[in-house]
Amino acid sequence: MFAQILFWVLAAICIISSLVMVGSSNPVRSALALVLTMLSLAVMYITLSAQFIAAVQVVVYAGAVMVLFLFVIMLLNLGAPALPEQPRSMQTVLAIALAGVFLVGLVAAGVFQNLPAAPISAKHLHGLGTVQQIGYSLYSPHQPWLFPFEATSILLLIAVVGAIVLARKQPAETEGS
Amino acid sequence: MLDNLTEAWQHLRNGLYQAFIFPEYWHGIHLPALVPYLALVMLLAFTLGTLPLLIWIERVVVSLMQDRSGPNRLGPRGLVQPVADVLKLFFKEDLQPANIDVRIYYLAPFITMFVALAAGAVLPLGSVGFRAADGHLFSVPLTVGNVNIGLLYMLAASSVSVYGLVLAGWSSNNKYALIGGLRASAQVISYELAMGLSLLCVVVLAGTVKLSGIVEAQNSYPFGLHFLPVFLKGSIFSWYWLQSLIVPVLLYTIAMIAETNRAPFDLPEAESELVAGFHTEYSAMKFAAFFAGEYVNMLVVCGLNASVFWGGWLPPFNCFPFTFVPGFVWYGLKVMMGIFFYVWLRATLPRLRYDALMNLGWKKMLPLALVWLFLLAGYSTLRQSNLSLLPKPASAAQTMAGR
Q1: What is the nearest CA distance from A67 to chain B, expressed in angstroms?
Q2: Is A50 part of any domain?
Q3: CA distances from A16 to A9, A22, A69, A154 (A)
Q4: Per-residue pLDDT tens for B243-273?
Q5: Range in A67-76, A106-115, B139-148, B209-218 the model is least confident about
Q6: Which residues in chain A are closer than 8 Å to B152, comparing Cβ atoms?
Q7: % of chain B exceeding 90 in pLDDT
Q8: Which CATH number covers residue A72?
Q9: A63 touching B, CB under 8 A?
């Protein structure tokens, strides 16, 4: 019962704040609304007993990524909504249409296709999303996930090195950008 | 009562760190279920109740270190001075600058205060011993939420706490405040990495991210040497400041000072360059909320330091006069020593230049923390493998038996 109420409240916060994120003309307000969406998602993860994912969601997305977004917005000082009224472009129409198709698809999948319900019970979920459990699933030799995990981390490392190479100052004698 | 005392005496003889044991059921009330509520009251009372005292401590200690009198008008040794300061802030006019983002301007101090208080929810303030009906003993850590992801929760709270400062700086419509907010966010992001890695060193040793589990893992023999006398079990030499070979605690202490924007890392509010930084445009109680939030933040990071590196509620030696003092007293003492260290540094060190700050965080502390993490990972694997010449770990088995 409590979980149900919590779910509906969180869902309402999540949807409203994501609508504000899309609709607000002030970039800082948009970023804050996105933070609120991410925080409510984190609480939803906790109600699904995925504690580790919830903490990582807050640390990585609400903490690091969004602070960087805010940093850039403030550095460029995109404060006042001084943008001229743009004519409604093709992009807007296409975005609304695609969102509608996606919504219809989701509702259809939920209502008509009878997706299997997740086996939610206290006994089943106990210790499911703890750090230990995720560690066992990722790194255990009996599970196939170690290689994809390491491949992903190498991919991220390449991205970091690439970013540094791109951002590095060119020597003066070579032709710069 | 006598029963309790004799039992307590037995536990002292056996070298258990708890001298006070409560029954599990008292008049039909399940006492362990009430522990989180007790912790909640203690946490709020301690953090909010010691705020005026902290301000007084800071002013008096700094004045002694700088060889001047400090507050000496109101009350003995100026003890009532913080009360007067708070009253002044209450009655001050609440100014509101023109052309600001009003909602975010009013929200920012509350974010700072709220996040700082919420971060303390997972700190284990102590440990309460209970005796079940069948006679076996168990202990319940005195925390509001004894969650499985305690350490990650603290990191998450510290990364969210920067929003208060950044938004305050941005919404004030003041260039000094904006620069202060930007500096705060850059600084917190930079030092979060070294902070997380130095805490990860301890996680590698303890094998858990639960804060009460980390404290319990420190209740073992130093470096697993079982032949040592029992008064050294869970003593100051087996806490993780020494077991993680000292470097992580130094890194964490530097990072925690930078995270809370205190001297010598107080660039976001450097008064010689930025007036007062991100809170330039805040007056009266909104300024007080920032001020209080900073002090609560200091208490919380010192609390994390105390429970991760300095043994939490454990007494410094596992023998008679120390074990008789309740755990939360030891914990409070350790937190207060952290606060004293803050004030000491403030009176000692000059403010860093901005590039030196970034240099220290990214080029010195981060690589050192990474190297140390690898070293400690290798060390703990060696300790766990049968091939090693090093002593085998006993902490896991002992804490399991102790529960």
Answers
A1: 7
A2: yes
A3: 11, 10, 21, 37
A4: 888 889 999 999 999 888 887 888 777 777 7
A5: A106-115
A6: 52, 55-56, 59, 131
A7: 11
A8: 1.20.120.1200
A9: yes
Model-level ipTM above the cut of 0.90: no
Inside any domain, residue A33: yes
What range does the domain containing A45 cover? 2-79+126-170
DSSP assignments along B4-22, one per residue: HHHHHHHHHHHT-S---EE
pLDDT of residue B34: 83
Instruction: List the single best residue of A20, A70, A153 to mutate versus B (max B Cβ within 10 A).
Output: A70
Do A74 and B166 make contact, defined as CB atoms within 8 angstroms? yes
**To the nearest whole angstrom, how far is the Cα of B361 from the nearest Cα of chain A?**
16
Chain A residues near residue B169 by CB distance under 8 angstroms: 74
pLDDT digits (tens, 9 = 90+) for B106-136: 888 888 888 888 888 888 888 887 877 777 7
The number of residues in chain B equals 403
Give yes or no for residue B398 having a pLDDT over 50.
Answer: no
C-alpha distances (whole Å) from A171 to each of A174, A175, B355 are 6, 8, 22
Angle at alpha carbon of residue A97, lines to A94 and A102, rounded to 5°? 125
Q: Structural domain tally of chain A?
A: 1
Determine the residue of chain A that is closest to B209 in CA distance: A131
- Nearest-neighbour CA in chain A from B234: distance (Å): 25
φ and ψ at residue B23, rounded to 5 degrees: -70, 155
Range B227-237 average pLDDT: 81
> pTM value?
0.82
Which of A39, A67, A75 is opposite residue B162, by nearest beta carbon? Answer: A67
pLDDT of residue B4: 60
Residue A12 included in any domain:
yes
Helix (H) or strand (E) run with residue B49 in it: helix B35-49
The beta-carbon neighbor of A59 closest among B155, B182, B186 is B155
CA–CA distance, B81 with B93 (Å, rounded to integer):
20
- Evaluate whether residue A10 is within a structural domain: yes
CB pairs under 8 A between A and B: 72
